[in-house]
């Protein structure tokens, strides 16, 4: 039997996530670190980590640089994740995540990342083109490092589209605004990214759904909006379902959005309904938010919490 086509994740700006836990964070004061951990991070990489745990064949494509890049590669190898990461000059960023135990809030300090030149971008595009041809779904996620033009995701989406491959885009700012011009199959903005994209603020779910429909009218098939502790909203051409998560003790929300994207991929691959997909994506994000550092949900954990998600149809 022919093996299933792999999912390709693209991470052009990977990161080593350094998560520090502080009892009570004092802005402008001396903060003693109680616990610390480092995890391979960056949006596509986190999606690949979840998909591997979901027993989906995945290849993490991207760029990396220097010592930290090698640490990320080694971590992926240990997790059994195939990766194709082209070496860039310089050093991979370290993104600092501060978890305040007293408020249960995570504050993120993300570095800009290494500088990328045109030659490297052309080299990456050629690799992407050859890998895309054999992919089931392609996930493009995260910020673009300095030197990468903001329309780069758009060109990658166009390449995938020309080969009939579905794409999911998880980016913000200009990279998202220009990326959606190529009408990816799905996007996963959080509510702040969506508001910034559309230049609107939403006072009700109905208002948000009406705004999301404008994106669907532009050819995007699915829009998944994450709303932190409030849950998420999944909109297709014909349906809109809000998922409210079950109560958890949030530990580190880093990677929660990426876990939703991975569950979205899993739902598409398994032909799940919009309602089921809303459950899967919400359960995945919620479980990851209850784990330390950039640790992610497992298939077993998600399957056992699907029924705890509350759905509301609009
Ligand atoms: N404080 C929280 N309590 C419960 N679930 C949470 C919390 N924060 C995040 N989540 C879960 O993680 C998902 C993604 O979180 P969100 O912060 O919106 O994503 P992103 O990190 O992409 O901005 C949410 O839809 C929810 O299921
Ligand atoms: O590329 P950006 O936008 O700086 O984001 C990278 C960061 O986002 C993460 O991928 C986590 O994203 P989510 O919390 O949205 O799932 C981290 O691993 C990484 O440090």
TrEMBL record:
Catalyzed reactions per annotation: beta-D-fructose 1-phosphate + ATP = beta-D-fructose 1,6-bisphosphate + ADP + H(+); D-tagatofuranose 6-phosphate + ATP = D-tagatofuranose 1,6-bisphosphate + ADP + H(+)
Enzyme class: transferase
Pfam family, one: PfkB
Annotated GO CC locations: cytosol
InterPro entries named among the record's database cross-references: 1-PFruKinase, Carboh/pur_kinase_PfkB_CS, PfkB_dom, Ribokinase-like, Tagatose/fructose_Pkinase
Source taxon at top rank: Bacteria
UniProt-listed Enzyme Commission number(s): 2.7.1.144
Gene Ontology BP annotations: carbohydrate catabolic process; D-tagatose 6-phosphate catabolic process; lactose metabolic process; small molecule metabolic process
Pathway stated in the Swiss-Prot or TrEMBL entry: Carbohydrate metabolism; D-tagatose 6-phosphate degradation; D-glyceraldehyde 3-phosphate and glycerone phosphate from D-tagatose 6-phosphate: step 1/2
Keywords assigned by UniProt, alphabetized: ATP-binding, Kinase, Lactose metabolism, Nucleotide-binding, Transferase
GO MF annotation terms: 1-phosphofructokinase activity; ATP binding; tagatose-6-phosphate kinase activity
PANTHER family: 1-PHOSPHOFRUCTOKINASE-RELATED, ATP-DEPENDENT 6-PHOSPHOFRUCTOKINASE ISOZYME 2
Function: Catalyzes the ATP-dependent phosphorylation of fructose-l-phosphate to fructose-l,6-bisphosphate.
Sequence similarity: Belongs to the carbohydrate kinase PfkB family. LacC subfamily.
The protein, known as: Tagatose-6-phosphate kinase
